[in-house]
Every structure is written in structure tokens, then in C-alpha cells.
Design goal:
about 90 residues, mainly beta, 2 helices, 7 strands, globular
Amino acid sequence: MKTINLTQGKKALVDDKDHGWLSKFKWFAHKDKKGRWYAKRGFRTGKKSIIFVMHKVIMKAFDMDKEVAPNPDKASAEYASIILTRRA
């Protein structure tokens, strides 16, 4: 496992095989309304903003919804188990 530095002093843990191409982009840390952290990147095309979430980019899961279940390991509470489900 390797890390990618995010904004706000956060780091994302990524697999060695994904680190090379993911580290070519700038990623930022985003905290959602429920207090969960996500690694995201974005860019603008004209007036439209495009935002990518790192776990969806890695899994090529742009057409899937996400559900996040908290990790029961209290020592690493900032991590979460990601469960992806297809849209109906």
C-alpha cells in the first residue's frame, strides 16, 4: 500500500498497482454531511464542473451508487468499507 497526499492534511491509501496513475492527478479531501471523508478531484469544462471520487475511478464504477458501512475497527475510524450497488 502507498499513500497519496490530499488537502486538509489527509492521505489516501491506495494499492501499489494503482498508485502510479492516480498520483499523476491532484486530489482533495472532502467531508460529507455525515462526517465521512472522500478523496476527490475535479475540473471545469466551460461552466460545468466535473468531480471524480477516487474509489469510483479505481473501480471504474461511474454508473454505480455507493453505500458506505463504517469500519468496526475503532483505531482506523477514518476508513470505511465501500459497498457498490448497481442503479435500478
